[in-house]
Amino acid sequence: MISPILPTYARADLSFETGEGAWLTSTDGTRYLDFGGGIAVASLGYAHPHLVEALTQQGRKIWHTSNLFKIPAGERLAQRLVDATFADTVFFTNSGAEAMECAIKMARKYQSASGHPDKYRIITFEGAFHGRTLATIAAGGQQKYLDGFGPKVDGFDQVPFGDHEALKAAIGPQTGAILIEPIQGEGGIRPVPSQCLRGLRALCDEHGLLLIFDEVQTGVGRTGKFFAGELSGVTPDIMAVAKGIGGGFPLGACLATEEAAKGMTAGTHGTTYGGNPLAMAVGNAVLDVVLADGFLDHVEQMGLLLKQRLAEVQDRHPDIVELVRGEGLMLGVKLRVNNGDFAVAARAEHLLVIPAGDNVVRLLPPLVITEADALEAVSRLDATCARMEKDLKHGAKA
Length: 398
What we know:
Helix content: 25-40%
Structural class: alpha/beta
Strand order of the largest sheet: 4-12-11-10-7-5-6
Largest sheet: 7 strands, mixed
Order of helices and strands: EEEHHHEHEHHEHEEEHEEEHHEEHEEEH
CATH class of the largest domain: Alpha Beta
């Protein structure tokens, strides 16, 4: 008999009741150090007083009015995002997939409004993940997400990750845009080298294409910069954002230049819930914290500390850890053992990590972690490696 909740997740037999900072407390009272952050969502951790206050204050006023009317907090949040980024305009959504759908539609509409309706195809990269809608699974191109859902949505051409010659060869008369994650998240925390992103920008400029960044996982301080594209100095034309911008409240955004957005006139796109007053109150509260002096410096410092200490873990456990990569507090530990088994072993040490592609576990802790939190996580990862080594020895003896 099917469960009341559609069984599309193989859920761990674990649930949480409360949280504070980077720590979660399960329903049986056990404390866990969360280095998954709800998959990079809990940017300010749990029960952050400024977010709680913003949400409860707004909740006493008004939750929803629809986009048929002005939403002042949304106008304020959009202006703050414009002031802090390359963008001239913002469309608010409820999720990363919706932000990506907006980005895809915007890129196609731009080419159509520019007199090139045939330039609707978008080049993407193998190993990418852009969401779970029919269009975004086609954009990601991973067969495991496409199987069983009928013909793949047309308009996306995948090229191998890091193959610049294949990318240039893929540009044709129907190509309208290039879409990339500055760091592949689901793909295994694979950073795109800065020179490659600069090369993409040059190719787009040369061929009249739009450059789209998927910063759903990398954005809002995750890498130690407000957005990961800043690490390379490359600005896109369109950027999809979600996860950390809401700190746990469903919120996404599609940012764009005025030129890229020129086709998105009244009636071309819409959303019922996107940009509602509750979400806007929380989004503004997140930016209050993330854009405060010293906050991104703290993320960068914690990321550097973790990377250094994880290198020591790798040295101590070379049969378990192959390498460590990533930026800021978006780090990946590539393993020589099964990453799913490693995540289970980490839970036994009361540490939460997230498996990803390329046999990696992701470390995506709240951006507010302390030095003590970081060192405790390293200690528990060290213990997890020791646990896995013990299992390997027992397996060898058997």
